[in-house]
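Let us practice reading a record.
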Amino acid sequence: MANKWIDEKVLQKYFVENCLDYSVVIEGNTYPITSARFNEPFDRFPDIYCVVNGEEYPVEVEWLSSHYDHHVKNKDKSATKPYTHEMFEKDGGFLVVLEKDCEVFSFQQVIIDNDKLRKWFTKNAVTLLNESIVQFYNERVKKRKHPKIWFIYVSEAVSNNWKYSKKMGIWGFTEGRMKSNKELKEIQENDLVIFAGSIKTGSLKLDGWPRVKDEELKKVENADDYIIENIEIFKVIKSYYNELDDVRYKTIWPDETTVNKKYPHRFEFEPSQISNFSKVTFKQLNYYTLVKLKEAVMRSPIEIDYSHFVELLRNFK
């Protein structure tokens, strides 16, 4: 059995953009639909409003007539359901459907032209996909009510930049890091961020460290000579932002200029530390936290759960 992959919202967008191709009957007379708009906020009952003969009418869009169920879902008017089935009837509402498979109360039903829909979708498929992807990432970064904890590895290569970051309370990422790890967009105010590193590897070398399998990491999980030089914890005070959005691009680090704009993806943190400790050996951390540390070395920032945070704090003196 084939699956219906395309959401009903695509039908809504098609009809809003192509309403002029359709008409409805009002008091025995046929009138063209002259305009259509989405309800606000989007995806609330009714789906859209159409203007016919100078009057605006509520419209619900469905794949099939039988999908209409607001007589069940919206029995009572309330703060969360401000518009009801009874109001829809009273206001002269009608349905727009791809297929009429039944009568629905006394509602008039406008049937979408299948061929026109196919042509429109073929023409607009790339735009629809791009808009959906943008919306997906926008929704992911909506402000949370609960804080997250982030792990960022400070290698020897960026240790000089870290000195400037600590003074300014700003950390930045390159365009390449953004492309490989879009999670950094989710860093927001009141989150905690752990800057850890660098790591001094011991006598037992792991070929390819840190790009080794978790099982390989077990060989050094109890090593006293694998040492995390420094661990510092800060509170985020400004959520992720793109410095390129500011026409007066602010450079922070020595290897950045107003020409190369190397680290545009940023967040800000309170310069005063919540805590810091140093010379933590692999032996002092459990295996599962070490796995997360290894992941952070490869693809900072990464989110960690509270159990790993507590494991790190055990070593705070």
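A brief commentary: The two ends are 62 Å apart (CA to CA).
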